[in-house]
From TrEMBL:
GO terms for molecular function: calcium ion binding; identical protein binding. Forms monomers and multimers. It comes from the Eukaryota. This is von Willebrand factor A domain-containing protein 2. It comes from Erithacus rubecula. Its main location: secreted. It holds the Pfam family EGF. Keywords: Disulfide bond, EGF-like domain, Repeat, Secreted, Signal. Residues 713-733 are annotated as: Disordered. The gene is Vwa2. It is found in: Secreted.
Length: 747
């Protein structure tokens, strides 16, 4: 809400009659207090007073009573409902006689804000005209279900710029500022402009309708005779009547439009020209989320380096260089991290004990002194030894329990010559967190050793290893904290196979997987929105993107999702997601990456390739998770790429792949986004990109998203307005619009 800082006298005229009622009077007070946020209240700038009227007007407080915004709002809050008939004309005559009590006698612009349902007991036309002839700007604000015709009479010209609705306080405050911005208030902020858009005024009217006929008796011309006849049966009915109108609002560029936050950070606006970035773990070196080269988490960190013949001398030296560069960058003088280094081949040595070095210089000298040994690759034995001896406390403190998380980083580039499964299980039982680093051909063994692909870092070439330093930093500091996408904005939909081919028991596995996956995201209107669709032969939306705004609400809703149990059609599910989930009307936000995760048994995939391609064409990633045996070619056509396909042999193993799936989703969330995909324009509107924004070109429709049909024929329309309003929208501005649009549709 922008602020008016001019010299201005503002008088609120609040309807306190019985037709308003106490409940709506409280809403009027809330609205008046909210409008005060748009004024710079000060004795030399904006002064505010209030009159309550019903049968008679009553001065609540004059304009010179309260010099600050907080005092005015507190006094409005204490105003008591009086009750009585609605004598609006008498209240206007009171103002004509007394002026603005405590005001500056018309030496500054005067603004009268009438908040009423417009159901006056007498005529208001003459006193309203006389008030406006005194050059008082009159805003008429409808409350409850107002009589807009009377409010039109009260409001200054043009009425569409002076009629407001108290039901949406922030929008009305913007509307009031938009009208006063030129010439009364200070100039509009740079880049902001007043624009029009179609809007609706609604009210309840009591109308008479014939409900039918009944037999009645009437007299006749013959003496002592009556005759039967049909008489109409009339009843009174309250109907909602809509009045199409146009509203004028100030639209400003969002400071986040330029996407200033780097490395997947989320930009949060602070007014018209300021913002701050919420950064991912491992970033935050400056306000724009540059890589933050320090380990701020408190852990006991032990590096276990492969020194066997399989890794070669060149590979060993590469690991040493990586270790030196990582520790130089990440571990400073005041770092809470305790570091140790071990190396292995046939045996295991711990040349640098945990916490042995307190300064970086001596630590680097000790790493330089490490020598290549070149024996067999016995990774299993090394892990077992480290679990038993790597984190021993010194004898003095043997009775003190070390509560810090214990992290082992395994650096290897050679397949183990002994079994690693038992050792990996033993490490997990000892509450050690293991991260595996190796080249791409080590991917499968590292996943086995660590127990999860999420705990592995795989590099494609020697230089790529050094590029993975921020990733290692995040994984070390995410011990005990699911990493997820955290601060990254994302619209995420799960499409879950609930067919008989899955079965009830396995469906519960899938449901639990979705539930635990949601724990990795911050569910919020401005960060991550989640939708859930289940399908058999038909798809059903369990909840839409904008249904739930907190993690607890989403988790509770997932627990209620039922099993369907008929045949499967993944194609119908993806088509449903495209047409009925990932849309602006259902809460999807332009400017935010979108991902669909399809969880399927592999049945019913034959019809899924075309709708999956349609989703991708509209900028929505399709991630396919298949449990069981299915033809890979079919799956690839649906996923579009092996990178977005995860094939799991059994439902029991699903949770092992959760970290990998979430990591891939988050990679997508950090990628650049096209504001026009999916198309935010409704009714065949064409989306046209601009710098940091877009606009909708409409045909037969109008509004920011082509959401209002163009009025034809004799329908009222302002001749000064163009047939279309090509309003430009920023991603953040549109998020608020799409939520308002969805709310109005539900109403």
């Amino acid at each position: 809400v922008m602020q008016c800082s001019a010299s201005l006298d503002v008088l609120f005229l609040l309807d306190g009659s019985y037709s308003i009622g106490k409940g709506s009077f409280e809403k009027s007070k809330h609205f008046a207090a909210k409008l005060c946020d748009a004024f710079d209240i000060h004795p030399d700038r904006v002064r505010v007073g209030m009159i309550q009227f019903s049968s008679t007007p009553h001065l609540e407080f004059p304009l010179d009573s309260y010099p600050t915004k907080q005092e005015v709002k507190e006094r409005i809050k204490r105003t008591v409902f009086r009750g009585g008939s609605t004598e609006t004309g008498r209240a206007l005559k009171y103002i004509l006689q007394k002026g603005f009590p405590g005001g500056r006698n018309s030496s500054v612009p005067e603004v009268l804000i009438i908040i009423s349902d417009g159901k006056s007991q007498g005529s208001t036309a003459v006193p309203a005209l006389q008030v406006k002839e005194r050059h008082i700007t009159v805003f008429a604000v409808g409350i409850k279900f107002p009589r807009w015709e009377e409010l039109h009479v009260l409001a200054s010209e043009p009425p569409e710029r002076h009629l407001l609705f108290a039901g949406d306080a922030e929008d009305a405050a913007n509307g009031l500022y938009s009208t006063l911005s030129d010439p009364v208030c200070t100039a509009t902020a740079p880049g902001c402009k007043v624009e029009s858009h179609p809007c609706e005024r609604r009210t309840l009217e009591t109308v008479k309708e014939q409900a039918g006929s009944y037999v009645c008796w009437k007299g006749s011309k013959q003496p002592n005779a009556v005759q039967a006849s049909l008489c109409p049966f009339i009843r009174w009915k309250r109907v909602l009547i809509k009045h199409p109108s146009r509203c004028f609002r100030t639209v400003c560029p969002d400071p986040c439009d330029s996407q200033p936050c780097q490395n997947g950070g989320t930009c949060v606006s602070e007014g018209l020209d300021r913002y701050h970035c919420i950064c991912l773990l491992g970033y935050g070196g400056d306000i724009h989320c540059a890589a933050k080269l320090s380990l701020e988490c408190s852990v006991d960190l032990l590096f276990l380096m492969d020194s066997s013949a399989g890794v070669t001398l060149e590979g060993f030296l590469r690991f040493k260089a990586f270790l030196k560069r990582f520790l130089q960058a990440m571990v400073g003088q005041d770092s809470p991290v305790s570091v140790g280094v071990a190396q292995y081949d046939d045996g295991v040595k711990i040349p640098i004990e945990l916490g042995q070095h307190k300064d970086t210089f001596s630590l680097m000298k000790s790493i330089d002194a490490l020598n290549f040994s070149g024996g067999r690759t016995l990774t299993g034995r090394a892990l077992q030894y480290i679990a038993q001896h790597g984190f021993r406390s010194s004898p003095v403190f043997a009775d003190v329990q070390d509560e810090l998380p214990r992290v082992v980083v395994l650096l290897t580039d050679s397949k183990s010559q002994d079994s690693v499964a038992e050792a990996a299980k033993y490490m997990k039982d000892q509450n050690l967190f293991l991260i595996g680093i190796g080249s791409s051909f080590m991917r499968a063994e590292l996943a086995t050793v660590t127990g999860s692909p999420q705990q592995t870092i795989v590099y494609s070439d020697p230089q790529d290893l050094f590029n993975r330093m921020p990733e290692l930093q995040r994984k070390i500091c995410s011990v005990g904290n699911p990493e997820g996408c955290q601060a990254q904005s994302l619209d995420l939909a799960f499409a879950v196979d609930a067919s008989s081919g899955v079965g009830l028991e396995n469906f519960l596995h899938l449901r639990h997987f979705v539930r635990s996956s949601c724990l990795h995201f911050i569910i919020d209107r401005d960060v991550t929105q989640i939708a859930l669709v289940t399908y058999g032969s038909r798809a059903h939306t369990m909840f839409s993107l904008d249904t739930h705004t907190s993690n607890s609400a989403v988790l509770q809703a997932i627990d209620q999702v039922p099993f369907l149990g008929d045949s499967a059609s993944a194609g119908s599910a993806l088509l449903h997601v495209f047409s009925d989930v990932m849309t602006v009307q259902k809460g999807a936000r332009p400017g935010v990456n979108k991902v669909v995760v399809l969880l399927t048994s592999g049945a019913g995939m034959q019809d899924a390739a075309a709708p999956a391609q349609q989703l991708r064409h509209n900028g929505i990633l399709v991630f396919v998770v298949v449990i069981g045996d299915t033809e890979r070619d079919t799956l690839l056509r649906v996923a579009g790429s092996p990178n977005y396909l995860v094939h799991i042999s059994s439902y029991a193993e699903l949770h092992y792949y959760q970290g990998l799936i979430i990591e891939r989703i988050c990679e997508e969330a950090r990628s650049p986004v096209n504001l026009c995909k999916p198309n935010p324009c409704m009714n065949q509107g064409v989306c046209i990109l601009g710098p940091g924004s877009y606009r909708c070109e409409c045909h037969g429709w109008e509004g920011p998203h082509c959401d209002t049909r163009v009025l034809r024929g004799d329908s009222p329309r302002s001749p000064a307005l163009p047939p279309r309003s090509p309003v430009q929208w920023s991603p953040r501005g549109l998020q608020h619009f799409s939520r308002a649009l969805q709310h109005s549709k539900r109403q």
